[in-house]
Amino acid sequence: MTGVPASAAGGSSGAHGARGPAAAADDARSEVSGSAPGPDSDGRPARGGKIAAAAVNQASVWNVANLLTMLRLVLVPGFVALMLANGGYDPAWRSLAWAAFAVAMITDLFDGHLARTYDLVTDFGKIADPIADKAIMGAALICLSALGDLPWWVTAVILGRELGITLLRFLVIRYGVIPASRGGKLKTLTQGVAVGMYVLALTGWLATLRFWVMAVAVVLTVVTGLDYVRQAIVLRRQGIAEHAAALEEKEA
């Protein structure tokens, strides 16, 4: 009636007419919900979709499981400072160092459980969690050996095993994942208790007890390490055999 083109009188209605009612409804839902619009009619993803998805993934890093892992990483230098304060033999400072070590061990029990239970597993957590575990344990063992409370060969055995098994997991990851065994979990618990007892300035029968607890921890460290090596060899052989069988089947 007025002679004004539809595109000028109502640009959105013109666009909706060109794209169809389904696209118009999709745009309306996007405006109401505040979410990014869906794909265009030609199948291309709407602009801003990848940016929105990246923002969601980035925000998911800041969850309670990862925060506990970060706390363990922060505790490492604090633990070392407390452990070596006043020459490293002051019972009061050693007690504070034990408290920091205990907090780190407790958070180690919870962050992985929380991540798996509430679907909070992230790439950051997969990398940072084992680093935090080995950092606090390695710092404690090195400090104890440097102060003369623990023989260096014990520190070498425990840290060598941990680093070796971590490297072994990466080498066989193409064939599968080596699961954590009950023996490995018992080893971790025994190591934590033994190192914690050595951090404290214990005397008398408690000092004798911690020696035997550490002895058990060393034995479990070696035994479980050899078991992981066995699992890695079996896993690699199975992976190679399955790959060869798949190639033969493909050629046939």
Poorly predicted regions are 1-41, 43-59
Tally of alpha and pi helices: 10
Question: What is the radius of gyration?
Answer: 29 Å
Number of DSSP-assigned strands: 0
Q: Which structural class do the helices and strands define?
A: mainly alpha
Distance between the termini: 74 Å
Helix content: over 70%
| Secondary-structure element string | HHHHHHHHHH
Mean pLDDT: 78
Shape: globular
In terms of DSSP E residues, the strand content is under 5%
**Describe the biggest sheet?**
none
Concise account of the structure shown:
This protein is mainly α and 252 residues long. The protein has helices at residues 6-9, 11-19, 21-33, 49-60, 64-84, 91-117, 123-146, 152-171, 182-199, 205-251.
How would you characterize the overall build of this protein?
This protein is an all-alpha fold and 252 residues long. It contains 10 helices and no strands.
Annotate the secondary structure layout.
Layout: H1 6-9, H2 11-19, H3 21-33, H4 49-60, H5 64-84, H6 91-117, H7 123-146, H8 152-171, H9 182-199, H10 205-251
Helix pairs in contact: 2-3, 5-6, 5-7, 6-7, 6-9, 7-8, 7-9, 8-10, 9-10
